[in-house]
Design brief:
The protein is of the alpha+beta class.
């Protein structure tokens, strides 16, 4: 939805790649904004950034009132998890391939950033999920914005598991794995496994099997306020849990994974003319005409 609020005065540029070509983009943004706002930089993989005010991610959370993620959707996912407790909105500049989340192209950087400083942009909130891996003695927790995935640690091996919703059994299954996807993640791995595209305004979670050994299994969409629990059945195959494909931990039959929405939400900024369905058409190549030779 479009909005108009006061301009941002402390802007953090976040880059997680080690590509020295990104220095020119940093300089471009700095030249554009330095007279209008304080500019901070978090680029731990880059050299030759001494001229900028370099901060850690923790310091970004303390000083900035806007974070600009420069990279692909993966960079923005990292930013969202790191800044979820700081109430800092995130704008994504896309240098990757897809750009479902990081939707500002390189060519549009100047126009979009000037619009944002003038208070002209669209804003939306997305929820993250928390996975609590519980044993009798300990609980370890991780966040995900796209999805939490249960899968085999070894290649080409099925795992056996049970899925519960609010402590009620949904099914006992053998498959390559299972995806628990947010609406944000419904256009990621879940989409490749036949999961539904879910509008980001909905508070639901999709349970999507990965190559199930059955002819009748289908994805299930549940209210996000229902706790989802996964339990691995003992076998010779080691199972693993992945969070946004960026953090991993082994899960044993003695443990259970409880998944539920994180209480805080992340705010995303978009260009003022942002349209979710425009993004879907562009990225998924909808409505394109067939080519004839």
């Amino acid at each position: 939805m479009p909005t108009q609020i006061a301009s941002f005065k402390k802007i953090a540029l976040i880059i997680l790649k080690d590509d020295e070509a990104l220095l020119s983009i940093i300089e471009q943004i700095n030249q554009l904004l330095c007279s209008k706002a304080d500019i901070y930089l978090h680029a731990p993989q880059l050299n030759n950034t001494e001229a900028y005010n370099n901060l850690s991610m923790e310091e970004i959370g303390q000083h900035a009132d806007l974070a600009i993620s420069i990279g692909g959707d993966g960079t923005l996912l990292n930013c969202a998890r790191a800044l979820i407790n700081e109430n800092i909105p995130i704008l994504g500049i896309n240098l990757g391939r897809l750009g479902f989340l990081a939707d500002v192209s390189i060519d549009a950087i100047d126009d979009v950033l000037l619009d944002i400083l003038n208070g002209e942009f669209s804003v939306e909130e997305r929820f993250l999920v928390q996975g609590d891996l519980k044993s009798q003695q300990t609980t370890s927790s991780y966040l995900a914005m796209n999805d939490i995935i249960l899968h085999s640690l070894e290649a080409v091996r099925m795992i056996e598991f049970e899925v519960f919703s609010n402590q009620q059994l949904i099914h006992h299954q053998r498959a390559d794995g299972l995806i628990v996807s947010t609406p944000t993640g419904s256009t990621a791995y879940s989409l490749s496994c036949g999961g539904p595209i879910i509008h980001p305004s909905l508070d639901v979670l999709a349970i999507v099997p990965i190559c199930p050994h059955t002819l009748s299994n289908r994805p299930i969409v549940l209210p996000a306020n229902q706790k989802i629990e996964l339990r691995v059945i003992a076998s010779d195959t080691t199972a693993q849990v992945s969070y946004d494909g960026q953090s991993n931990q082994v899960i044993t039959p003695e443990q259970r994974l409880v998944i539920q929405p994180f209480p805080k939400r992340i705010t995303l900024l978009h260009p003022k003319d942002y349209n979710y369905f425009d993004i879907l058409r562009a990225k998924l190549h909808w409505s394109t005409q067939p080519k004839f030779s």
